[in-house]
Amino acid sequence: MHLAAIYRHPVKSLGSEPLKAVTLDAGAALPGDRAYAVAHGQSAYDPEEPRWERCANFVRIANVPALARPAVSYDPESRVLTLADGGARATYDLGSPTGRADLAAWVAAVAGDVRPGPHAIAEVPGVSMTDAPEQAPSLMSLASLRDLSARVGAALDPRRFRGNLWIDGDDLEPWAELGWSGRTLRVGAARLKVGEPIVRCLATAANPDTGGRSDNPLPALKAIRDDPLFGMIAPVAAGGRVAVGDAVTLT
Fold first, then answer.
1. pLDDT of 126-155, one tens digit each?
2. What is the band of 166 on the pLDDT scale with cuts at 50, 70, 90?
């Protein structure tokens, strides 16, 4: 097996950014992944006492599928987010109040009245705003994605699942990863302790090419198992650099 792709999502539910390599830290999420989220007017997120909050407190692709469409890139040092959507391109300095307000306004315009405002950029330093409080990368299998695509009758883009580490290989059987809980996976210089499967929601129906909903994979996932599972939480047991093409070994 090998590491086929790495993705991070600097802003929760907004675009996906492919990476060639990243250094993982023990006990932490993938660096820069879900570093920000966009709180809506009914959110419990408190900027005076920032802490991880449940996903319902933020604008999400499950409710606003158009957020999946933009291509994004993020520079952690400058804190500048670049967003490209069709022919439009914009940059946002998320280290400044103006840049944060501008991005929140862009998301609010896309979200419309689906999630009423006021909207604001949420951040908890050192915490990834994932759907679960556990700080860990997610692990996905391209073999499982191919099998799921065949069941759906459409080639599903990996970006639908917003996973971090995608593995592949001739020796990787579809859905094998769902049986790896508790086992150790060596990826490049890092070691991951495979955790629990990820239960999926309507966010996976968002087509990242169109920004609309199509080819919903949830019925096919539920036909495989009672719960719509795809991918695994994979906490980092020992940090290190991982790069696309690195060998992946299950122990």
1. 999 999 899 999 999 999 999 999 999 999
2. very high
58 and 114 together in one domain: yes
Rg (CA), the chain: 18
Q: Kindly state whether residues 140 and 218 are assigned to the same domain.
A: yes
Residues 22 and 102 in one domain: no
Phi, psi of 79 (to 5 degrees): 65, 30
- Nearest CA among 187, 133, 168, 223 for reference residue 23: 187
Pairing of β 236-238 and β 17-19: unpaired
Distance, CA of 223 to CA of 218 (rounded, Å): 9
Length of the chain: 251
Strand, helix or coil for residue 106: helix
Report the pLDDT averaged over residues 60-86.
Answer: 94
Task: Tally the domains of the chain.
Answer: 2
CB 137, CB 30: distance < 8 Å = yes
In the predicted model, is pLDDT for residue 90 greater than 90? Answer: yes
Continuous H helices in 7-164: 97-111, 142-152
Predicted confidence (pLDDT) per residue in 190-203, tens digit: 999 999 999 999 99
Please report how many Cα atoms fall inside a 13 Å half-sphere around the Cα of residue 79, on the Cβ side: 13
| Whether the Cβ atoms of residue 177 and residue 231 lie closer than 8 Å to each other | yes
